[in-house]
Amino acid sequence: EAPPVAAPAAPLTAAQKEIIAHEMDDIRRDHQHFLVIGMPTVPRKNEMDYLLRTLDALRDQVAALRAPLDLGAAGGRLRLLPAAAQAFLRGAHARAAGLSILVVVMNVSGLPHGRFLEAQARYRDAPFIEFREHLDPQPLEGPQQSKNRNVPNAKVRKQTRDLVALLRAAQGRGRHFLFMEDDFVACPGALLATLHYLWKADARAPDWLAVRSSYGMNGIALQDKDLGAFADYMEQHQARRPCDHLVVEWFAGETRQAARHKRDRPHFAYRYNLFDHVGVTSSLRAQASPIYPICYEMLHKGILFEVEAFDPKQCPGDDLWPCDRQGDYREVFQADVLYDKDRKEQQKREHARAKQNSLKKQSR
């Protein structure tokens, strides 16, 4: 059966046109990008091409903002959306036209990185991608492994310092910043969904502190004005907690220092996971791989800490939590149909098999 034909997007209201005009004026005046995506990268075992896959997906979605919206791209998954959701995407696509996006890719390994060099060659003419090298001046002192994974060892502390360097390189370059890891591929429609929740957060609480749209250190949006404070916080506390824990305690205001910066500024959680983790599969490791969230899986408290998770009971008809305050921008992207239940069941079966094989090896 052919998918329903989407109704054309409703024309922009006068208020929406005024908001867009202000956005573009601010960006032109400050010579800033609307969104800067920061991506640290390191060489992988067997030169796995995670970085290239991740950048290819971003290239396609950035390029799509400059062309008519094609719902048949990326395997045609977006054609599964109901007519109202397709119309929403058309409206978001029209609003995004002309917005400037910059991707900063930073080799933080201090080692030869073949895929990084390959990406530089492939994207040498892409104006929206910038490549940088960072060499951490601090030696890897202390044990490389820790019995308690919540106590950072030398390698984890270096990872935190690498993110500090990335934040400092991105600071002042754009209005919003988004963390991406080099082995998380953007899901179909993820870039438009990201722009959507940034517009929505700006409308609900212009002074918002963070928006969560994935897990780990991926899919965390911040405002440019906060990058310096967060970089300082991570640098100061690198020996106490891993970076993906520090970021939550910082935007949730869980320490006195973080609370002083947060004040009464809200942080938001987006309903869906917008990035697909391709960096770990059960075939690459002996032990069972974790069951990672897949594209458009709901980011509930079973996946994230409760303080950063989307709450469907509080916001059943919304895609941004909390939803107790509303602004002029109230559109909702209803994308539940993009969650692939069959793939999730297959993932669970593979996890169970890997876990069983791991137990057999341990019993020998």
UniProtKB/TrEMBL annotation:
Skewed-composition ranges (Polar residues): 355-364
Domain of life: Eukaryota
GO BP annotation list: protein N-linked glycosylation
InterPro entries in alphabetical order: Glyco_transf_54
Any GO molecular function: acetylglucosaminyltransferase activity
Disordered, as annotated region: 136-155, 342-364
Protein name per its UniProtKB record: Uncharacterized protein
Organism: Heterosigma akashiwo
Native organism taxonomy: Eukaryota, Sar, Stramenopiles, Ochrophyta, Raphidophyceae
